[in-house]
């Protein structure tokens, strides 16, 4: 297929069972690891791991968004994993004045990338990580594939901000696919996604 695909999903630490959509991301990663695709995949959690290092204790939300933006620039398709909690996710929001180092639990400090509302032309400060990634993809005219972490198309899980993007920007939505083919989670939509990426 030869495409570059960025997978945008709710992420937390590897091995954290509380990560809402980690099961979908792990399965897509397994497809890639098994060489079932000639497509190259990159993932939101890989971006986090690349910038949140002990050598960079002052990593901020804007650092993560900046790296995600670079990965979206690299991609031709963005897979947006839509789980039941995606619409309410706020992780990554920042007022552009003060924030804590991302993922450190440390106190708030003046933002090292201070931007007034007028300077924040992409609106990234007030966006969650997920909203920023999908907004960036829409603005750049990337193809987007919605994948529901469900056995059904759960249209009610789609955030209202995504529906606004559909009206405000010209981009191709490749389709909407339930990821699981059965409740136990042993059968997935590999062939459906493969068809969209060909």
Kindly describe this structure:
It is a single chain. With 198 residues, the protein is an alpha/beta fold. The protein has a single domain (4-87, 128-197), classed as 3-Layer(aba) Sandwich (Rossmann fold). Helix content is 31%, strand content 16%. It contains 6 helices and 7 strands, in the order E-H-E-H-H-E-E-E-H-E-H-E-H. It has helices at 22-33, 44-51, 61-74, 129-139, 160-168, 190-197; strands at residues 4-8, 40-43, 77-82, 98-99, 109-110, 143-148, 173-178. Helix 2 (44-51) crosses helix 3 and helix 4 (129-139) runs parallel beside helix 5 (160-168). The N and C termini lie close together (5 Å).
Based on the model shown, name its key terms:
about 200 residues, Rossmann fold, five-stranded parallel sheet, 7 strands, two-stranded antiparallel ribbon, globular, alpha/beta, 6 helices
Provide a short characterization of the protein structure:
About 30% of the residues lie in helices and about 15% in strands. It is α/β, with parallel strands linked by helices and about 200 residues long.
The biggest beta sheet is recorded as: 5 strands, parallel
Determine the CATH topology.
Answer: Rossmann fold
The arrangement of helices and strands along the chain is EHEHHEEEHEHEH
Give the mean pLDDT. 82
Structural class: alpha/beta
Question: Based on CA inertia axes, which overall geometry fits?
Answer: globular
Query: What number of domains?
Result: 1
Uncertain stretches: none
Q: Reading side by side through the largest sheet, how are the strands ordered?
A: 2-1-3-6-7
Distance between the termini: 5 Å
Q: What percentage of amino acids are in beta strands?
A: 15-25%
Number of strand segments: 7
Give the % helix. 25-40%
What is the tally of helical segments? 6
**Mind telling me which CATH architecture this is?**
3-Layer(aba) Sandwich
Can you identify the CATH class?
Alpha Beta
Rg from alpha-carbon coordinates: 17 Å
